[in-house]
Amino acid sequence: MKKIILNQQLKKKTIIVGTVILIILLILGIAFYIGNISFRTFIDRHILRKEIIQNNVASIDISSLENPSIYAYNKYITILNKNILTTYSSSGKKEYEHEIKITNPLYASNNRFLAIAEKNGQNIYLISESNLLWQTEVEGEIQKIDVNKNGYVSVIITGGSYKAIISTYSQAGKELFKTYLSSTTAIDTSISNDNKYLSIAEINTSGTLIQSNIKVISIEKAATDPTNSVTYTYNADANKLITDIKYQDKNNLLISYDDGIHILFGENESENISYSGKKVTFASVELNNYSAYAIEKTTGLLSTNTQIIMKNTRNAERKPIYGRRYSKRLEK
Hints:
It is a single chain. By secondary structure, this protein is mainly beta. The protein has 3 helices and 24 strands. The protein has a 4-stranded antiparallel beta sheet, with no helix packed on it. A 4-stranded antiparallel beta sheet has the order 5-6-7-8, with no helix packed on it. The chain has a 4-stranded antiparallel beta sheet with strand order 9-10-11-12, with no helix packed on it. α1 (2-35) packs across α2 (37-47). It is elongated and about 100 Å long. The termini are far apart.
């Protein structure tokens, strides 16, 4: 009996000692993994399989000699080459092809819709997943296009007797109305998600200071009486340059200026982000319910640090962003 008790005690001691040794080895291994780059690289590559290499990811072969145009939207990747638009899934599988007579493309996408037009040309196409919904030609030269999440398209056209003409189309390709600008330059357009409003960002450079404006047009009124369809005109502060606009949820219209991003809801405007005095390398109002910009800071004689800052346009909710090459944060 005494011998059995001794054996049990020995076994318990052995288990305890073994457990302690394993814990120590685990702590040492984690410390070595964190502190030794070569060891961490080996574990990531061969044990954890973190490294992404050509053999274990989907790929699409592209000939750089043919100078194709590549664009990604929704869950697809498109390649336009020699007037053929080929669409691939996220796994690299070819989904469909369409004949698109465009050599210098302008793209706009939203939700499942992709609009393509010829820069300084006349052709426009609207695609939804595997379907070519419609195509048309315009008089003049296309400068910019936009599509909302329901497939309504707005097109900025120049080259006529007006400084700009904005044509608006339904999802079916019916031209709903035209808006004529005689004294201002059209910078951008955006159609609200409920298909009720077209906003036009324009600038007037005839005076000593730049004057930026936004015209909000009722699509329903414009279809029958275009001259009396402007429901509201927002005048920005003098010398502020509008660069981009975009409707987001709840009919929030994001306005990107050269020194910040504002939100226009109805006739109420508020500042969303200010980057006046900062070295901004990128700004966007194209994200879903977020605005974003990147600032560059010098951290040494030959080194810089880039911060990507995002802000929720509906509330101050924070959302983490991960990356290795940049220092990133979120603003309230």
